[in-house]
Specification:
8 helices, Stationary-phase Survival Protein Sure Homolog, Chain: A, globular
Length: about 300
C-alpha cells in the first residue's frame, strides 16, 4: 500500500538528528509538461519554484525566499497576486490570465496557487522543471481538514500531479491565531525548511528529491509566548480526520447570510498532525496528488457493489 511506502520514506528522512532541531542557523504521476526532471549532483544548486496562497508579497513567502536563497539555492517566486487562502486545488478556467513581473525572480499570477504553479512550470521555467516546488510558509496551520481545502497544499499538489517534487509548509496550530506569534514562528519554520531541503538533496544524490507521486505537508508549531521557541522534535504523521473548524450561518433576511467560523477543539487522533503540533512538534505528513486510499478500501468498495447492475 502507498501509506507504508511513504511512511518508510519519511522515517528515512528523519533518521539523522540534524533535522530535529529548529534553532536558527548562522547567517505514478505524469511527467512535468515539456520537460524531464534535471540530472544533477548531490551538491548542485537547487532550482526552486516558491509559491503560496497568501500572496506573492506575504511575509512568509518572502522570509522563505531569503533563507533558501541564502542557503545557496536558485529560488523564483511564482505566487498569487492576491490572497487565495482556502483555494484548495482549484485551477481557473478563464481564457486569459493576468501575470505581473514586479521584480527579478518574482512573478505574480492573478489566480490560485495551482494557477501559479501551472504558469511557473510552463512559462517561467521554460519547460525545464525545477528540482523542487515549495509552497509556503503559510500564515496559520494546514492540519486536519484544513489541509484538504488549503491553497498552500493545493500548490504542492499542482506540482506533484505534474511529476515535480513538492512540499507544503505552514506555521500555526488549531487555535485562535495571534498574528505576532505566528509571524515570529515563521523564522524557525524557515530554518527547518532549509534543513529539510538539505536533507532531501543529500539523500537523493543525482535523482529526484522525492519518489514520484510523494509530497510532504509540513506544519510547524508556535512555541513559546513570543512564538520564537524551538520545536521539541519532528513527527511523521497522518492527517487527522477532524474538521477543525465549524461554520455557522445566520439569515440576515435580505437574501444574505452572516458567516461565522470558529475553532472546534476535538480529541486529537493518535499519530496525527493535530496531536504533533499540539505537542510543540513539527508535523510532517506524506501526501499524494490523487484520491486513492489503498488496497483495503478498494476491496471494501468492491464488496459493496458486488452483484449491483445498472
Amino acid at each position: 500500500m502507498r501509506s507504508k511506502r511513504v511512511l518508510s520514506l519519511t522515517a528515512l528522512l528523519l533518521s539523522a538528528p540534524a533535522l530535529v532541531g529548529t534553532a536558527p542557523a548562522s547567517a505514478a504521476p505524469q511527467a512535468a509538461p515539456h520537460s524531464a526532471l534535471p540530472d544533477r549532483s548531490a551538491t548542485a544548486t537547487l532550482r526552486i519554484l516558491l509559491t503560496n496562497d497568501d500572496g506573492y508579497d506575504a511575509p512568509g513567502i518572502r522570509l522563505l525566499f531569503r533563507r533558501l536563497t541564502a542557503a545557496g539555492h536558485d529560488v523564483t517566486i511564482v505566487a498569487p497576486l492576491t490572497n487565495q487562502s482556502g483555494a484548495g486545488t482549484r485551477l481557473s478556467s478563464g481564457s486569459t490570465v493576468t501575470v505581473r513581473h514586479p521584480e527579478a525572480k518574482v512573478w505574480a499570477v492573478d489566480g490560485t496557487p495551482g494557477d501559479s504553479v501551472s504558469f511557473g512550470l510552463a512559462e517561467v521555467f521554460g519547460g525545464r522543471a525545477p528540482d523542487l516546488v515549495v509552497s509556503g510558509t503559510n500564515f496559520g496551520p494546514n492540519v486536519a481538514a484544513l489541509a484538504t481545502h488549503s491553497g498552500t497544499v493545493g500548490g504542492a499538489v499542482a506540482a506533484l500531479e505534474r511529476g515535480v517534487p513538492a512540499i507544503a509548509v505552514s506555521t500555526g496550530e488549531l487555535a485562535v491565531p495571534v498574528p505576532e506569534q505566528i509571524l515570529n514562528a515563521m523564522r524557525p519554520t524557515a530554518e527547518f525548511t532549509v534543513k529539510l531541503v538539505e536533507r532531501l538533496r543529500g539523500r537523493a544524490g543525482r535523482g529526484p528529491l522525492l519518489p514520484p507521486g510523494v509530497g510532504l505537508n509540513v506544519n510547524h508549531p508556535v512555541v513559546g509566548a513570543d512564538g520564537q521557541g524551538t520545536a521539541r522534535g519532528v513527527s511523521v504523521t497522518t492527517q487527522d480526520p477532524q474538521p477543525g473548524l465549524a461554520v455557522d450561518y445566520t439569515d440576515s433576511g435580505d437574501g444574505t447570510w452572516k458567516v461565522e467560523v470558529s475553532v472546534v477543539p476535538s480529541p486529537a487522533q493518535r499519530g496525527g498532525d493535530v496531536e504533533a503540533v499540539g505537542a510543540d512538534r513539527i508535523s510532517l505528513t506524506p501526501i499524494a496528488p490523487d484520491w486513492n486510499t489503498g488496497a483495503a478500501d478498494f476491496v471494501t468498495a468492491a464488496v459493496l457493489v458486488a452483484g449491483l447492475r445498472p
